[in-house]
Amino acid sequence: MNRLATAPLTLTCAGRPVARYETRPDLPARLAPRPYLHPVTTLAGTPVTESAPADHAHHLGVSVAVPDVAGRNFWGGRTYVRGQGPTELDNHGEQRHAEFKLSDPDGFVEDLQWRADSGVLLRERRTVAVTRLGDDAWALDLTFALTNPAAEDLTIGSPATNGRPGAAYGGFFWRAPKEPAAPAVFTATAEGESAVHGRPADWLALTGDGWTLVFAGATAETRRDPWFVRTGEYPGVGSSLACDARLAIPAGGTAVRRVVTVVADGRLDRKRAASLVRRAVAA
After folding, report:
1. pTM confidence score
2. For position 3, what pLDDT does the model report?
3. What is the rounded distance in angstroms from the CA atom of residue 67 to the CA atom of residue 205?
4. Max Cα–Cα distance, the chain, nearest Å
């Protein structure tokens, strides 16, 4: 267990609390302990995240989670082994909060260490900012920069690169609340899980009971990453750092991704989703 639990950080927008950030959660090693945002709500107070649900206890609200960093599991749960399938392994890492370089009610800059086997595999600089978009919408802007501090190259993989087609999860991940009806999902040109999963898109919207999330890659490199999408089995959206091939981070090198998420009350149509996400990325 991680015995260094501390009080969470609350983020606000328009004077209202909209997200809580857990910096040192006291979690079992099997869940790959890491900082995460939960609960996240709309401005009207509707929850749009879920943490440690019964179907996937290692899904922790909004987090940066990777199932294979040089063979170590920073996602949680079982590890996909080529030729063997999902397997229980004692290979889980931990993202450890080091310090806040800046911390305000509307955002923070944080340094973290990705640790496994008593060593540091990655150093991360994480930047999170909250922006108001109107009376019924706000944006969560999350950038993570992963630096390889070693003298040797390091690679990041996924179940897809390890032999499981369609399972290229790993990177930014948002677990939404499970409701009686599965949420709808669409991009500017496609609709439905099978049509949007595993494909890049400038933005992708997930709509539930009284809420909409619109995800957008805010850099050219981020937009090249396909979206990982689930609606039927559970509601979740993430990026795919390693889809068709492992992502290499050379010695001393850094991989950077920025995802902006519009959090809106109500069910947005394509026109409104596109308009809000353009404003959010520009801001």
Report:
1. 0.96
2. 40
3. 24
4. 52
